[in-house]
Amino acid sequence: MSQSNSVHSIVDQDTFFEFMRIYATPDSRKRRIFRGQAIASKPLLPSIARFKTSKGEEYNEDDEDLLFRMFKQRAASFLDRSYDDLSIWALAQHYGLPTRLMDWSYNPLIAAYFATEHQANKDEEKEPSAIFIFEDYPEPVIGQHFDIKVSEIKAFAPAHLDIRVVNQRGLFTVHPYPWKPLQDSRILCVVIAADYRRSLRKQLNLLGVNESIIYPGLDGLSKHLKWMKTDAW
Q: Could you give the CA distance from residue 215 to residue 211 in angstroms, rounded to a whole number?
């Protein structure tokens, strides 16, 4: 591949390493965070906007508030100390609760993993995946609390209260109206060819990025060993 200042697609090992050369090289002029997405054509939306209620309706802010209050109440028995609400929002997001937070990582390899983690269904198996790159993203809030109902997009780096957050090098953006797709001129999209996804996941494993790292614990270890032995994906 010719030398350039951008990569628009990852189709093989050469273009993958070219992507890493360009976007994973320390550059004091650019601050970058990364997000992997299984289907490139789907809009960038927080999870609260991607799921439907049991009635087939979109979640609304009342649903969001109720889910959070229930999570906060019931999660208490699993936590070894008390956490502020922002930290609980981060935990809820990491463990699958629909929220207005959007996951990003400082590590492009983590984003590549999430882009290739799941096998696409039959209707989507030929659709490319994507790594989104947010350049010069909002300066992240660290160690300060703020109300989750923001008036403009914010980024925050959660306290290292969970090993998943640590291993995934995670941070979040918070969205004032999460049902509106995130569109920003600072966000680049690099697509991953559908027929390279499987090979890329194997490449990531060789680089030490797999389920046992992403989801530390017995569940992640078991999933990783199953994947290695059966090559189910």
A: 6
